[in-house]
Amino acid sequence: MQIGAVAKKANVNIQTLRYYERRKILSPQIVKDSGYRLYSEEAVKTVLFIKHAQELGFSLEDIKELLGLRNSTPSRCQKVRSKATDKLKDVQEKLKMLKGIEKTLKKLIRDCEQNKTAEGCPIIENMEAK
Question: Quick one: fold of 1-57?
Answer without folding.
Answer: Multidrug-efflux Transporter Regulator; Chain: A; Domain 2 (1.10.1660)
